[in-house]
Amino acid sequence: MAARSRTAKRTSVRPAGGAGIAAGALFLTAAGLYLIVSWLEGFGLSLQANPALWLSGVDRSAALDAVGNAAEVISALLAIVITVVAIVVELAATRYTHRITDLFIREPINVIVLSFFVLTTVLCIWIAATFGSEVSPEALLPQAALWLPLAMLTICLVVLLPYFAFVFAFVSPLNTIRRLKAQALVSIGRYAKRGEPERIEILEAIEELSDLARGSLTHKDRTIAMAVTDAFHDLLLDYWQVRDALPDDFFELDGELARDPDFVAVAASVRDQLGREKGWLEVKILRQYLELFSNSLGQGRDVGSFLAIRTRNLATESEDESRSMLRLCIQFFNSYIRASINGRDLRLAYYVLDQYRQLAEELIARGDDELATECANFMRYYGQIAYDANMKFLIETVAYDLFRLIEFSEQHGSPATDALLAIFLEVDRPEEPFDGDEDRLLGVRRIQAQLAAALLYRGDRSRADLIRDDMREERPERLALIRDELARETHSTYWEYTDRGVNFAYLPPEQQPHMEAFFASLGITGNPRGRGQGAGGAG
Fold it and tell me: What is the pLDDT of residues 390-402, one digit of tens each?
């Protein structure tokens, strides 16, 4: 909840605040300089001087000429402002999203500033053309025709630089992201009053955010793509706070919503299910996640990894009693891994599996053992798919993550531990093994031996015996290779930089004796030969 409050606060910040402070500072500086000049000239600050008399004594003809010249100055300034603003906004719209132009036109500050420039120009022209050099005896405020345009001209000049600063801040993609997200939230809140048009505006805001993220990936602006990912995450969190107050027809997948590109091909049964589960907005946003993930393959792995992190956050933060959002996030995790395999991006799949395992651990921690077991089974499946696709290291990564998951489950006394162990022992049995190249699965067997050592260290001999029985058919030379590798490796972290940082082949010193005992039960004894680098921690 605190995180959502901070997000809302960030969203409400407007760049106009800094521009207003700058304008005030410029005005005060100009006023101070004017008073200094007045004092040097002997007016204004002297107790004997009467500022009103001094002002009324200004040469009216010269002042009216100055007002006429001011009209030319302001009109030229207005032309410069419009030209600069149009170029800046158009460049930003071309690079990021055309919605910036629409947001800019709607922004009240832009309307007020430009309108004020126009009013000042028109007033100066009218006064210069119609007022004479004589002051009317019926004047309620003599010299008003001089000082009102002068004050307006001063304001125009003072706000010029702060306004430019505001414009540059306005077209910043990060500010655009906040505005689009805020607009979607406003549309959600107004649905009860306006109906279908608000749902269309929600879709438009989501599509514009996606376009902005896709463009940023093209230009390698990873920070912007991550900011869009964050905006989608925060949008769902805020939406969940008001979802129960929305009318039932908001959740129906019909009308213009059903013709949206993300839903137009959806089967009727799926539409009905989304309506019952009130889940079309979640599906829409996760579809954007999947598209961004696909675009990040091979060129923005940190963005893809961040998408997986935010998907895991959504899965655990949904507080959905029906668990529909949780199951939906699991489906999209599976889609991420499938996309990584199809795109042959081994490293991104390596990062996604890390987040998938953490999700399963969180499920175990809160007692959702059934879904955690499903996650583990999906991980095994995709590991074997990767093996069939000749992506050897991914099946080893799956084995390591299942090893970590089983350790976590065993330490928490979860009833899912035995089911997880059964899945773990099936990892090295792919549907289509490589003929004559079974050493490709040596890393999986090594990780199974690591789990056996960890279980023996904690006194869980019965489960360690299951692993021993599974490995009993292995050739002695293969078992000796595994034992030697585990005995040699001394680096707890991988020797190249990775986000995980872990070395898959490392066995803690306190578990080494148990590893020796495990291999001794398989008939493998003796001193390890040579020294190697183990399996490492990244593909």
Answer: 888 899 999 999 9
